Amino acid sequence: MATIIEMPELVLEKVIAFLDFKAVLTLRQVCHDFRNFIDDLNDSKLPDSKFQEIKFVSDDRRISFGLEESKKRFTCISYSKGQRSFCGKTEFFGYSNILNVAVRDMEMILKFQKTILERLQFEFHNVQLYGGSLVHTVPIKLSNMLQKLNRNVKTRTLSIKTNDPSPIMQILRFVDPGALKTIELSSLDGKMEIEIDEFAKTEQWKKAEGIYCGFNVLNLNLEDICHFSSCSITLNSITAQELDFLRKTFQNSNSSKLERCRFELRNFDEIDKMSNLWGPASIFGSGRTWYFRMKNSEEKILRIGNYIINYERFFRNFVTFDADELDNVPDEALVHDYNEN
What is the CATH architecture of 1-47? Predict the structure, then answer.
């Protein structure tokens, strides 16, 4: 009697097309013949896993995937001590190759994903995996896998959390710039500093609509963020002249898409210079707010705020820019007319 693997390839392809991601991944583990057959299938012949979010975490001597199909359907695959746990089943691979197993599974997960992800998230913690694989080798292997995949990953949001800047470019360059809307980059310990000029040259950066940089940015060129509709960036400091450039960019709605911008500043002593450039601010509580009319708009207003937050042991200055409705301006606030200069 012929075994199932000896069935015509067309029949096997039809069977796999009716299965979901979990069933195919389980089938792949049955034997080498099934694994090889599935691995050799063209991506178009695999079912769509339809995940909303994929989260990859290397943390505390383990690797894990979080796969969200919907708010009520969530799958976790974990790798530790040379074993993989998935859907209540545990397989042992030995310490030496568990990282390769995890990366290979990630490749399979991405091959099954046909629809655009809402979020693709990576967390690279500073830990050592079993078998002597340092955490910094994980993004390198992922980058090699993404290159081998031979197609960019489609996600609306890319989130990378790390204390080492190198994984950011290794991952960012393999994300489809046509699908990407938001880039979220952050430091796990709040101490990382990065020069972002190389990121700003990528198509992914240029075509995204929003950027969040939770680490300290060292060489920000404000012209590199004017195409975003929203941004949130941490800096050592910023000058009044740079803020004035941004004020003009916001006010001239024909030259920018910016609607919201937030700077977290470690050092800031430009208040007097801002007042000299813009005139008096409206004082509400401990914060200062400037209101400016927008070019060619009777309904919109530019609101620039400055306030300080005490984080237990240190203070942080914030400067925010928001395009708001004129109706939301307090009656007692001073509104400055539009001025191209």
Answer: Up-down Bundle (1.20)
Contact indicator for 110, 44 with CB cutoff of 8 Å = no
For β-strands 182-187 and 210-217, DSSP reports them as parallel
Complete DSSP assignment for 201-247: TSHHHHH-SEEEEEEEESS--GGGTTT-SEEEEEES---HHHHHHHH
Provide the token pair at 282: 């409206």
Domain map (residue ranges) of the chain: 1-47, 52-219
C-alpha span between 116 and 53 (Å, rounded): 10
Residues 6+ apart with CB under 8 A from 3: none
Residue-wise pLDDT tens digits, 115-149: 999 999 999 886 554 444 444 578 888 999 999 88
Closest by Cα among 224, 222, 227, 223 to 207: 227
What's the CA gap between 74 and 79, in Å, rounded? 17
Handedness of CA 172, 68, 78, 15 (dihedral sign): negative
* CA 75 – CA 65 distance, rounded (Å): 8
pTM assigned to the model: 0.86
